[in-house]
Structures are given as structure tokens and as C-alpha cells.
Amino acid sequence: MDDYAFFHDVTKKINVPVIMMSLDGARSVVMKAINQGVCDYWINSSNSNDFDVDEPNASFAPPTKKPCLKWCDELHHQFVKVVTQVGLDGIINS
């Protein structure tokens, strides 16, 4: 089974979006992948030698977690006050 047959089977049987990444950016290759069910095609222009997997990057810092919003009584009362002032017609986009 080649890559294109695999993409076709995955998108038909499992119904998951498939993104293909390749060094080949030829229009015919991209269109063949799209026609076989790939939802997006990314052209990878980087060389595998660009990545040093053995040594950790000291400058990389994991993203900090955003604080969670805790729904409290005060926030609920503010929400109800705004909805009362604006009305449901002002809140719902039509």
C-alpha cells in the first residue's frame, strides 16, 4: 500500500483529518494527495540535519499555563446584570 492508498483508506474508514508533510511541493503531488482525501498538505523545506535531537535546547522554555477562570457568585451576578441590561436580542448574533 502506498502513501496515497493509505490516506484514502484512513479518511474513508476512520474519518479523521489527515495532513501530509513532504519535501515535494510539485502541484501534481499536492493535488494527488488532496484527491485521495488529505485535508491539508504542508511543504517541509527544512533539512533533517537542521534538527539536533541529542542535545536539549537550553533556550526552550515550555509555555506557561494560563490561569483558569473560576466561575463564582460575583461573576455570575455580573453576567446576569449585563444580560438584563442588554437583553437576549443584543447578545445573540443573528
From TrEMBL:
Protein's name according to its UniProt entry: Response regulatory domain-containing protein
Signal sequence interval, chain numbering: none
InterPro entries to which the protein is assigned, alphabetical: ARR-like
Keywords carried by this UniProt record: Transcription, Transcription regulation, Two-component regulatory system
Keyword Electron transport: no
GO BP term, example: cytokinin-activated signaling pathway
Keyword Kinase attributed: no
Membrane-spanning intervals of the chain: none
Domain of life: Eukaryota
